[in-house]
Design brief:
- The chain is mainly α and about 350 residues long.
- The protein is globular.
């Protein structure tokens, strides 16, 4: 991080870069609508989006019913995870912090495990009869699990004075929920284990238009809260003591950051499964592209770059021209891990440190 606020680049030098990021995101969005098991020419995609009639009626159905909600989900998820990761790295002053460092991911996974794996353990038929084992039930279960952990973390954030202590408590919560999931996996049957593992691969394809009415507002609220906290995030760059000297209420700001990050990560995990590496990689990539630590430009950049990266990852996972769908988390790991390694090594050589 820079050693002084005066070292941040002026905002006037950044609009062109942000405009370029926006253009790349739009291109990635259109490509995600064009490519898949059925290729639809880009000009036909634009015609359909503008309300025109496509050469084939099936193309309109494919775009509106399947690819458009999936692309919007990917964009929202990437933006949410990117901003959430940025906030976590700033709050904990740790380059390896990510949206799930507070145990929100583990809580969501526990909720899904309790629904999916307990059916195999208890051999109950009620859930199966009511259709509760399905994409919507997994989203509800993950939301409840993530919400429970969120409530616990927010309570702890009000009582804990040190961010490092809060980080350790979040990790411990993650270990506890992970242990419970492991026990459920051990005693469950093979079919339920397979269903849980399939959810853990991550996917943007499970969000329909009706579920978008839940996902989009929650992500919007989380992003709005992050934008409201921009000045406080900038103050935290130089440490909590410096932020206090500027009159920042550290406890209130910490609670706001935790709430925003948990909302963003929890919503994405609930509807898309645990998406790995985007929360770690996107903030580092944006800092490298903009050469800035100012959250006034980093938050919009994380939204745009996060959305673009998620769209490209989903495009690669679709294996254009083939009927198979690759595990999304495998693609995000192949994109995210080398990015983090390259950026950290480069910054280590330039600065002699691996700080955020």
């Amino acid at each position: 991080m820079p050693t002084s606020i005066a070292s941040w680049p002026r905002l006037g030098l950044r609009p062109l870069a942000l405009a370029a990021m926006f253009g790349v995101m739009i291109l990635a969005f259109l490509l995600s609508l064009s490519f898949g098991s059925v290729h639809i020419p880009l000009e036909q995609v634009l015609t359909i989006l503008l309300g025109g009639e496509a050469e084939r009626a099936s193309w309109t159905t494919i775009i509106y019913d399947f690819r458009l909600p999936k692309a919007l989900t990917a964009a929202l998820a990437g933006a949410a995870l990117g901003v959430s990761g940025l906030q976590m790295q700033t709050l904990f002053r740790n380059p390896l912090a990510d949206p799930f460092v507070l145990g929100v991911n583990s809580g969501a996974s526990l909720g899904v495990a309790l629904v999916v794996l307990s059916v195999g353990v208890a051999n109950t038929t009620l859930l199966a009869v009511t259709g509760l084992i399905g994409n919507l039930s997994l989203a509800v279960a993950a939301s409840v699990g993530a919400g429970a952990v969120l409530a616990l973390v927010l309570t702890l954030a009000q009582r804990v004075q040190n961010s490092v202590t809060l980080l350790i408590l979040g990790l411990m919560i993650g270990y506890i929920t992970g242990a419970i999931v492991s026990l459920l996996l051990y005693f469950s049957i093979a079919e339920r284990i397979q269903a849980y593992i399939a959810w853990s691969f991550g996917s943007f394809g499970g969000v329909t238009w009706s579920r978008m009415h839940v996902l989009a507002p929650v992500v919007g609220i989380g992003l709005l809260l992050a934008l409201i906290l921009t000045k406080s995030l900038n103050a935290l760059l130089l440490g909590e003591a410096y932020a206090r000297s500027l009159g920042v209420d550290i406890r209130r700001v910490r609670t706001g950051i935790v709430a925003s990050s948990a909302l963003l990560a929890g919503a994405v995990t609930a509807f898309c499964g645990p998406i790995a590496f985007l929360g770690i990689a996107i903030p580092h990539l944006c800092r490298a592209l903009l050469r800035s630590a100012d959250h006034r430009v980093l938050i919009p950049a994380c939204i745009l770059v996060g959305a673009t990266t998620a769209l490209l990852a989903d495009l690669f996972a679709q294996a254009p021209g083939m009927s198979v769908v690759l595990p999304l988390n495998a693609i995000t790991a192949l994109i995210g891990a080398p990015t983090v390694i390259w950026i950290l090594l480069r910054r280590g050589v330039e600065r002699g440190t691996f700080g955020v």
